[in-house]
């Protein structure tokens, strides 16, 4: 039996109230909030966080044979972004890591291709939605990521949702587009595409149900994702499924995460679904696609450690509108009067890939001392080249001391720097993110998160930061 064997989702901690946009620009107030990726986050770092949530099962990470990163907002062009995710997850070097980028439909492509693959495949959907100030894309958009591992019993992991059928319909439809280098997408008048999408969704859903030998009223959870809000609403009304099966779209709380929205909706359903229930996921964009899944008895024991609803509930840090505009590069504010940051240099960064991306320390085989960063000579017993690698990305720690730096070069001053004593030994100094000054206290519990520390000379510098623990013990990754 082939199907889904693991999943995870990531919703950023920050929120922008739509009423704040209206109050600043003098537009009509709209209820709700949207999720906002922090100043040190992008689609690559969010993809890492979602994938970490999916790869919590013992022995699952080494079995992954392919990695697909789908996004409409890649951090790099003419360079593979999936390889940074691959490095941060410390996957085997023979794992194929490729991007599916350029449009929201790439998320559907990653899911379908992963579901069809003969080897365990990790599909990560990540997006950062930014529109022009005052536009619908700005207020209705959202940021987030979701990750799914498709495989089968032959891969040594229980299937939590069997793949019953899938179908896709493609159509060249000019309803949304953005030229390379343009700051925001352009959208045709919504009434033009509404009926077209309803027809395409009906064709894809009907074909998938026929293959699965099911009727529409057999669907227990019906989720519709897409950036065309009117079309999505019409599909929910006209698909023929039972009204109680139609799921919410999460947009009131976190907005529409574009490429990642199908993944977030599917993850939210899996967080709540019971064994033996049928899930239909419909994705609209340049056509339509449908995935039909049936949950198994293994689902309750293998749900994601951080449910989407819990992340929405705990992610309540309000972001002022001016700060949001600054983080997105739409408000050019004077930087700190300090030297410009230096970009990372390719040769030394590549030599330390295990540490820089995977946060892999070393432990002395003679005396057991842990070293961060990894070293060849033990600081305790002076043994040379008697070290074993020790992944640290899942290890929590306690703040030993901290500093609040109001002069450091950062888009979100002040910079919080903490010295962390890790459980099991080892000490390291790093930045504290997703936090306020009140969170920087001695004795606070922290965990590690993959972030973009700075962008300089057109180069993104990725590394790990600490953040306050908000979900108990957290997952134990491989």
Describe this structure in words.
- By secondary structure, this protein is of the alpha+beta class.
- The chain folds into 2 domains: 2-327, Thiolase/Chalcone synthase (Peroxisomal Thiolase, Chain A, domain 1); 359-468, no CATH class.
- Helices cover 24% and strands 29% of the residues.
- The strands form 5 sheets. It has a 9-stranded mixed sheet with strand order 5-4-6-7-1-8-13-12-11, with helices on both faces.
- The longest helix is centred in the middle third of the chain and has 22 residues, at 191-212.
Itemize the secondary structure elements and their pairings.
Layout: E1 2-10, E2 14-17, H1 18-25, E3 33-36, H2 43-54, E4 66-71, H3 82-88, E5 96-101, H4 106-116, E6 121-128, H5 136-140, E7 143-152, E8 161-170, E9 176-177, E10 186-187, H6 191-212, E11 221-225, H7 229-238, H8 251-254, H9 261-272, E12 278-284, E13 287-295, H10 308-314, E14 317-318, H11 321-327, H12 346-351, H13 353-356, E15 360-364, E16 370-371, E17 387-391, E18 397-405, E19 415-422, E20 427-431, E21 445-456, E22 459-468
Parallel strand pairs: 2-14, 4-5, 4-6, 11-12
Antiparallel strand pairs: 1-7, 1-8, 2-3, 6-7, 8-13, 9-10, 12-13, 15-16, 15-17, 18-19, 18-21, 19-20, 21-22
Helix pairs in contact: 2-3, 6-7
GO biological process, one term: secondary metabolite biosynthetic process
Domain ChsH2 rubredoxin-like zinc ribbon: 359-383
Pfam families: OB_ChsH2_C, zf-ChsH2
